[in-house]
Design brief:
Elements lengths: L1 E3 L20 E2 L6 E2 L4 H4 L4 E6 L5 H11 L6 E5 L12 E4 L17 E4 L16 E3 L6 H16 L25 E5 L3 H12 L3 E5 L11 E3 L3 H7 L2 E4 L13 H4 L6 E5 L8 H9 L3 E6 L19 E3 L10 H17 L4 E2 L9
Length: 358
């Protein structure tokens, strides 16, 4: 493998957590495969791969990929940016958020496959998704995000009872709730939603879900509901894990917040745009929403004086639910696996439908 450096790419936000599916009655999964590209006719020896990975998190991905490509002398990697490109045009592009230009750079003309290091593709320019084949890192964040959700559910139900001094008399516990016997509604039932469901079921939580496509539930014990209003009416906690698309923009708006079960716990690991935050504020104040646990907001980052930071019923984490100690290595392995498939003309993993937006 040969590695060539070009002008450094833009700085960009932290890599995004994945969201796998839309809303309504169905969802995509991480096993979606892109059509193969015939190896002998369109994939030459001496393959040039363009890499656009913003600092600082892009460096570990690039390092892991370099290690995987040791012993591949006919693969060349070149760093690319939106402003300037390499002398030779890459056929494959590995990219992360950061190509913030309206028009494609000249070097993009020969790219026939784009792979994104994130699961969501809503932050990428539309021209990037116009490549003949686009794949993403769907499914690589499901375990860690599901653990974040379970943590939020448990800490939201079981109030803090840790002590820092001896207790001479056992006080009556602060009113709380049990997760067991409660109902969790999941909006967007892709790999993340399914991973959350399996863990919630193990805690004896009743799980209902909403999918965009009318298909049987992929998780035994999960009831699929036909519409959002029905899900909101029966759920003690609602998890948003749908892709950010025009259809899901402000999905949780004033109307939806009047349909929730009073005292609902609202969790969002998808995108901040799924919630109308100004409609959320009165719902928090009057108790319709007991607690909001948000890993994503709109915008990101929030202004320092934003009301969400100081509201007593809001908890925010800085879009890190999808991170894990080995995430960068997993992203590199996924791309490498797809690269092997690409070179042999086999279907690729993690196909993105640019029209659907995920």
């Amino acid at each position: 493998m040969t590695s060539v450096s070009a002008p450094a790419p833009h700085q960009a936000e932290v890599a995004e957590a994945a969201t796998e599916t839309g809303t309504g009655a169905g969802a995509g999964t991480g096993t979606a495969e892109a059509p193969g590209i015939p190896a002998q006719t369109t994939v030459p020896r001496g393959l040039l791969i363009g890499v656009q990975l913003p600092s600082p998190w892009g460096a570990p991905i690039r390092q892991a990929l370099d290690g995987l490509l040791v012993g591949e002398p006919d693969i060349e990697i070149v760093d690319v940016s939106a402003a300037e490109g390499p002398e030779r045009r890459p056929r494959v592009l590995l990219t992360g958020p950061g190509l913030r230009v309206e028009r494609p750079p000249a070097w993009f003309g020969d790219v026939e496959w784009v792979h994104t290091v994130s699961a969501g593709v809503d932050s990428y320019p539309s021209w990037l998704l116009s490549a003949p084949v686009v794949t993403c890192s769907r499914g690589l964040h499901a375990t860690q995000i599901s653990e974040w959700v379970v943590t939020a559910l448990l800490t939201g139900a079981r109030q803090n009872s840790w002590v820092t001094a001896p207790v001479t008399a056992f006080p009556r516990p602060t009113p709380g709730a049990l997760l067991a016997g409660s109902t969790l509604g999941i909006v967007g039932f892709g790999e993340i939603g399914q991973a959350v469901a399996r863990r919630a079921l193990a805690l004896e939580v009743d799980v209902v879900a909403l999918r965009r496509r009318d298909r049987p539930s992929p998780v035994d014990g999960v009831r699929l509901l036909p519409d959002l209003a029905g899900l909101l009416a029966v759920s003690d906690a609602v998890l948003l894990s749908a892709a950010a698309t025009p259809d899901t923009h402000h999905l949780i708006d004033e109307t939806a917040l009047r349909q929730v079960r009073p005292g609902v716990h609202l969790l969002n690991i998808a995108r901040g745009t799924l919630i109308d935050q100004e409609a959320l504020r009165p719902a928090l104040d009057d108790g319709r929403v007991r607690l909001a646990s948000l890993d994503v907001t709109d915008p990101e980052p929030l202004p320092a004086d934003h009301w969400l930071f100081t509201h007593p019923q809001v908890r925010i984490s800085p879009h890190i639910s999808g991170w894990a100690p080995s995430l960068e290595q997993a992203i590199a392995r996924r791309f490498h696996e797809n690269l092997l498939r690409y070179r042999s003309g086999q279907p690729l993993i993690g196909l993105v439908d640019p029209t659907a937006g995920y």
